[in-house]
Specification:
This protein is mainly alpha-helical. It has eleven helices and no strands.
Length: 252
Amino acid sequence: MKRTSASLKLIARQQLSGNYGTPMAGILLLGLCSFLPSFFISSTMDTGTTMGLVTSQILVYVISLLVSVLKAGYSKMMVNICRGESFEVKDLAFAFTHHPDRFIIVHLIILIVQFVIGLPFNIPLWTDSSSISYIWLSVLAICVDTIVALVLNLFLAVTDYLLLDDINLSAVDAMKKSCSLMKGNKWRYFYINLSFIPLLLASMLTCYIGLLWLMPYMEATMAAFYLDLKGEFDKKEEPVIELETKEYENLK
């Protein structure tokens, strides 16, 4: 049964009730692991030269790949929560101890696709920042990058979850399986993400502190979406339905 956005959000809230502390700590650690290295690179490297620009960009890509492995660990934490299983902060390192190369390959492929498609729009920005059309080119490059990322995400949304559940699954097979599972579910996934926009805008009023609560909520909802795709919630309901049927028949 395909559950609605409201149903999946309800499951996420119920599973997170009383359990927000650890997911919030995980989000904080993820943010620091992403921000601090990037800040160090931007503040110490000279991007005024071609070599400096290329080097800094490569380092940023490397950091993003490593953070993606940590992010997969956070997804593991969220899946455990939605399954009612034990979870802890050290779940963040789960992907690093279970063939991290698979997660890196997936996100490297995504980075390469985004880079190649966006290259024609970014080259003019790298070569000439004084042009009158620089602002328009910047906006166009951002739009193209956003659209490409969105389309890729619609197909590969559950790739990390599949790799987490099957440590023997290869990166390419996981991507293929994700594409298969997302058939007929892309709009539902897109709508679920879209439904969080009001809360994201509201978090701006709290100087983004509200993201410490909102991000675990969003990630738990995405984990619930994955479990719904696999039919795990339906499997949990079947014994209850069968028991009620037997009791009803005994009363006849």
